[in-house]
Design goal:
Elements: H1 3-9, E1 36-42, H2 46-49, H3 53-63, E2 68-74, H4 78-87, E3 105-109, H5 116-125, E4 141-145, E5 161-163, H6 170-184, H7 188-195, E6 201-202, E7 207-211, E8 217-222, E9 230-231, E10 259-262, E11 264-265, H8 275-279, E12 284-285, H9 288-302, E13 306-310, H10 320-331, E14 337-339, H11 350-356, E15 365-369, H12 373-378, H13 385-397, E16 402-409, H14 416-437, E17 442-449, H15 466-482, E18 486-489, H16 492-502, H17 509-517, H18 531-540, H19 545-549, E19 564-565, H20 570-581, E20 631-639, H21 648-662, E21 678-680, E22 690-699, H22 710-720, E23 725-733, H23 740-743, H24 764-776
Parallel strand pairs: 1-2, 1-3, 3-4, 4-5, 9-19, 10-13, 13-14, 15-16, 16-17, 17-18
Antiparallel strand pairs: 5-6, 7-8, 11-12, 20-22, 20-23, 21-22
Helix pairs in contact: 5-17, 6-7, 10-11, 13-14, 14-15, 17-18, 21-22
Length: about 775
């Protein structure tokens, strides 16, 4: 479509700014001077696609190459699609307005199963044949990436290949291979053979799927020697990647209108329902200095008013408090806000929340996932109700008046009692807010139907039936209304289609085409989802959704994705599945023993963390043997009366002896003269009282922490401390957080001028004048 045409048409569609391009930091190259034209497609509207960090990173990475032009394309809203079809105009790229069939590569980011019909629509509107087998030598290669590429079988007929895993490095190798193939005049099949040699690239045409009479998969047969399994591509260290600091700033208001900085990739929590947590292992943290540099430079290049620190669990980032303090100090004066969109219950504390709200409150969502502790043990969420209530109390204490709670229904072993506890728990959170604020805060419960995903321990589990899902949602909605709680839910029918395509196989391709021909588009949008069309497509193609969603898989069943390796072994996943059914929790491997999931080789692929330099940890935060099972408790204490005259060394010795008397299981340093591992905040001058000092104590791995809770430890400690020393607070703190000296930015002193050791007797009204006179002095003799 020419520029003239598109601007003529824009008055006829909703949100014309979706289609105009030319945003700050967008890149339009002279196509006659590049060797490769790469289309970067997102099968949803512009506002959603431009909020996706992966699109922003790949766009900058590809355009950093002199030989490549990367141009964006998003799914046109139905009004624009109707216009394109009516005018017989093709779907084109945003930058240069070239039809998709004129590209060398058309890449799609696949993040959500209900976007598949949009992929077909974009291919057809762009003039690219739907089926890979029907494409000629002149058609572009169609490549898929993103989480769904770990089971792309339902759409494998429509893609030439997929990139499984991290894309930053692999996409460059793909570009090199395609350019080299063009130079050599390789045919399409030869080019695919070349691409298949790149780690992480999966070519569906090089595998044949054989089915059993009962419709399960019997065998996935490789058609090329040495190409039997495809292992995901892993960026081993985020800090070795180039820094991309010029994200495109959209004109149309995106879903997430902020600067997003990835501070970590991967997660070690091991939540059994979480596909991303399994697929993105190992944990790789970005150096906090690099995060700060990225944020500062990107803000300069974008003018954003908010920075969002992204990871699967941002609160778990090893240096989160120190990073927040540094960023807040630099951004608060500029009125730039910070947000942490993925805080896990238990990682939020007053310090973190205070830094977030320094400019403005950016909203809080807490994800208990399930209403009961039993069910949270099943899914390995590891959250106690007391932690949730405490976290909510902290949020309300700091001025927030609205909290969103995220839950799932249909989790394995769930009973109706578990479901009803969602309402009770939400009410408890609201009551906590009422105690703090004196009035009812807004508590909104958001509920979705659980969809078991590939490469997770629950891939063997059935999804709850549509009838069960509907019944539970109706009940929850009714009870939430009675309790005057906000309540949002995800349509159970959309979850059913998602479940089918999540664990589906190649035979679903014909269902997808049928639904597409019936007019299905934007199936992830409730106002556009057409259930009756999907019902018809399944029925007409003779496919029963319940085969994919409603049955429990046998342990030995071959899954459609078994030839695609995420790194986490199937044996480990099944062991975790068994642990779930027994309600046995698996500890976080970053602070406990290795769980032998199979991802790390401990040479080049391993967890990378940044804690700063402190004893027992190197710069990259690799936990030495023997430190991985310990736990840290932080005590707040006061020092008054006679003990104020103790020196710091004397105080430390008194505390150490009190710990020994109390029998608290503290760890000791190695070496010739072992010392208890106790770290204090900065020492005060001798003779000064304190009302708010802190110390960290590292507890021995042998401590029965279910018995040695913070409250009992505080009580026990107080019973043996010298008069004048008193523990005021106690809480467990993750080992990876920085030291006290690193996170305390300021101290508050109260100076009593009257009745002190020096007969000053200064009146309060005289104080400002004295301070002014002091500051005006050129010098002072001491």
């Amino acid at each position: 479509m020419s520029d003239l045409n598109i601007f003529d048409y824009l008055p006829l569609v909703r949100k014309p700014s979706r289609y105009i391009g030319g945003e700050v930091n967008s890149i339009k190259k002279d196509l006659s001077k590049v060797r490769l034209k790469f289309g970067l497609g997102f099968p949803d509207v512009y506002e959603v696609g431009m909020s996706h960090l992966g699109i922003q990173i790949l766009y900058q990475a590809l355009n950093s190459r002199d030989d490549t032009a990367c141009e964006r394309v998003f799914a046109p809203w139905p009004d624009m699609e109707a216009l394109l079809r009516e005018k017989k105009e093709p779907l084109t790229t945003l930058e240069s307005g070239i039809p998709l069939n004129s590209l060398d590569i058309m890449g799609f980011s696949l993040q959500y199963e209900l976007s598949y019909t949009n992929v077909l629509n974009m291919l057809e509107l762009g003039g690219i044949p739907l089926y890979a087998r029907e494409r000629s030598e002149k058609d572009p290669l169609v490549i898929g990436g993103g989480h769904l590429s770990f089971n792309p079988e339902p759409v494998s007929s429509f893609f030439d290949c997929f990139l499984i895993g991290d894309g930053e490095e692999a996409v460059m190798e793909i570009c090199d291979a395609v350019i080299e193939g063009k130079d050599k005049g390789l045919k399409r099949k030869e080019l695919l053979e070349s691409l298949s040699r790149i780690e992480g690239v999966y070519v569906p045409a090089f595998f044949e799927v054989i089915y059993n009479p009962d419709s399960t998969v019997r065998e996935i047969q490789p058609l090329r020697p040495g190409y039997g399994k495809v292992r995901k591509r892993t960026v081993k260290d985020l800090n070795l990647l180039p820094s991309y600091t010029r994200p495109v700033v959209p004109f149309a208001l995106p879903v997430h209108d902020r600067l997003s900085i990835e501070i970590a990739r991967g997660c070690t929590r091991g939540c059994r329902f979480c596909q991303a947590g399994m697929l993105q292992r190992p944990l790789r943290e970005r150096d906090p200095e690099k995060v700060i540099a990225l944020a500062e430079e990107s803000l300069k290049n974008t003018g954003y008013e908010e920075v969002s620190l992204l990871s699967l669990s941002t609160g778990d980032y090893s240096s989160i408090e120190g990073l927040l303090c540094r960023l807040a100090d630099g951004l608060a004066d500029k009125r730039i806000a910070m947000s942490l969109p993925s805080l896990r219950v238990g990682t939020l504390n007053a310090r973190v929340a205070s830094e977030i709200k320094r400019v403005r409150k950016t909203g809080f969502t807490l994800a208990p996932e399930a209403g009961t502790a039993r069910l949270r043990r099943v899914i390995n969420k590891g959250i106690e109700e007391s932690e949730l209530i405490e976290g909510a109390r902290e949020i309300f204490n700091l001025g927030w008046r609205s909290i969103k709670l995220y839950f799932m229904i249909g989790l394995p072993t769930e009973k109706m009692d578990d479901v009803m506890e969602i309402i009770r728990l939400s009410k408890e959170v609201r009551e906590e807010g009422k105690k703090v604020a004196g009035r009812n805060p807004d508590v909104n419960a958001s509920v979705a139907t659980f969809v078991p995903k590939p490469h997770t321990p629950f891939q063997w589990e059935p999804q709850i039936t549509p009838g069960e899902g509907r019944e539970r949602l109706v009940t929850l909605k009714k009870e939430a209304g009675k309790a005057n709680l906000g309540f949002k839910w995800h349509d159970w029918r959309m979850s059913l289609v998602e479940g089918v395509f999540s664990r589906g196989d190649r035979r679903l391709g014909k269902v997808l085409v049928n639904a597409f021909r019936k007019g299905c588009r934007f199936d992830g949008w409730s106002e556009e989802f057409k259930w009756e069309r999907w019902e018809g497509a399944f029925r007409e193609e003779g496919v029963a959704p319940a085969f994919y969603t409603g049955r429990r898989r046998a342990r030995e069943e071959v899954f459609p994705w078994d030839h695609l390796e995420s790194g986490v072994t199937k044996e480990h996943l099944y062991k975790e599945y068994e642990n779930a059914l027994k309600s046995v929790e698996t500890p976080d491997c970053r602070a406990g023993r290795c769980t032998l999931c199979g991802v790390c080789d401990f040479k080049t692929i391993r967890n990378v963390m940044f804690r700063g330099n402190r004893p027992g940890l190197d710069v990259k935060g690799v936990i030495p043997k023997g430190l991985s099972e310990r736990k840290r408790i932080r005590f707040g204490f006061s020092k008054t009366g006679r003990v104020r005259f103790l020196s710091h060394l004397e105080l430390a010795r008194a505390v150490a002896r009190a710990i020994r008397r109390a029998g608290i299981p503290v760890t000791y340093s190695a070496g010739f003269h072992p010392l208890p591992e106790i770290v204090f905040s900065d020492a005060l001058p001798v003779g000064m009282e304190s009302m708010d000092e802190h110390m960290d104590v590292i507890l021995d791995s042998a401590a029965p922490l279910g018995v040695w809770g913070p409250e009992r430890l505080a009580t026990l400690f107080n019973s043996v401390l010298p008069e004048g020393l008193k523990v005021l607070s106690a809480q467990f703190i993750p080992l990876q957080l920085p030291s006290l000296s690193a996170i305390i930015r300021a101290q508050k002193y109260i100076v009593f001028l009257k009745n002190g050791p020096l007969p000053l007797d200064i009146e309060y009204r005289e104080l400002s004048g004295l301070v002014r006179d002091f500051l005006l002095m050129d010098s002072i003799e001491v």
